[in-house]
Amino acid sequence: MMRRTALAVAGLVLTLTACSSGQQTNENRSGQTGFVSGNGRVSTFAAADRKPAPAFGGETLDGKQWNFADHKGKVVVLNVWGSWCPPCRKEAPDLIAASKELGPDVQFIGLNTRDLDKAPAKKFVQEFGVTFPSLFDPSGKQLLGFRGQISPTSIPSTLVIDKDGKVASRVIGEVTTQTLVGMVKDAS
């Protein structure tokens, strides 16, 4: 009886793990519960195959309002991160460098998720000198709007949204400066 119960539980765990992300075969589970650390592979979408990014926006970590609709006609780079995420810490300098290299014609926006308090997220921003705004999304509600484009458990993730508001490319996992600059240039 106990053996059957243990086998049933193991089967359920395997099923739930396999369903946690459409990217699961290309990603590795990290030690942190509740997120998947990707392999950094870039997915690029042909213009005809691009899907619209959802309407998103809200309050930033510094208390200002930011809305995607206000940046129509610009390439937007969305980076999903959490202060508790080791790969997010590793990629932060590359995001900052890419933002500086690409300049004001490209709008960078962070999406801070699952930090239940702004303090750790603000400390992360200060520690790394992040110059672009980040939306505060403690419940993951904003992130859920991207379901089908990125998994809510794939943190970090970076999307490049073209001037028409469609997702041109994505990276599940850490992104490098060179890769991100190339993604943006391909989307322009």
Shape: globular
Radius of gyration: 17 Å
Strand order of the largest sheet: 3-10-9-6-7-8
Q: Which residues sit in consecutive blocks of at least 5 with pLDDT less than 50?
A: 1-36
Number of strands: 10
Share of residues in helices: 25-40%
For the biggest sheet, the summary is: 6 strands, mixed
The CATH superfamily appears as: Glutaredoxin
Q: Identify the CATH class.
A: Alpha Beta
Give the oligomer, counting copies of the same chain as homo and different chains as hetero: single chain
Give, in order, the helices and strands.
Answer: HEEEEEEHEHEHEEH
End-to-end C-alpha gap: 61 Å
Helix-and-strand structural type: alpha+beta
Strand and helix map with partners:
Layout: H1 2-19, E1 28-29, E2 36-37, E3 42-44, E4 57-59, E5 65-67, E6 75-81, H2 86-102, E7 106-113, H3 118-128, E8 134-137, H4 141-144, E9 157-161, E10 167-172, H5 177-187
Parallel strand pairs: 6-7, 7-8
Antiparallel strand pairs: 1-2, 3-10, 4-5, 6-9, 9-10
Helix pairs in contact: 2-5
Keywords for this structure?
single chain; two-stranded antiparallel ribbon; 10 strands; Glutaredoxin; alpha+beta; 5 helices; 32% helix
Quick recap of the structure?
Helix content is 32%, strand content 23%.
Provide a descriptive summary of the structure in words.
This protein is α+β, with helices and mostly antiparallel strands and 188 residues long. The protein has a single domain (2-187), classed as Glutaredoxin. It is built from five helices and ten strands, in the order αββββββαβαβαββα. It has helices at residues 2-19, 86-102, 118-128, 141-144, 177-187, and strands at 28-29, 36-37, 42-44, 57-59, 65-67, 75-81, 106-113, 134-137, 157-161, 167-172. The strands form three sheets. It has a six-stranded mixed beta sheet with strand order 3-10-9-6-7-8. A two-stranded antiparallel sheet has the order 1-2. α2 (86-102) crosses α5. The chain starts with a helix and ends with a helix.
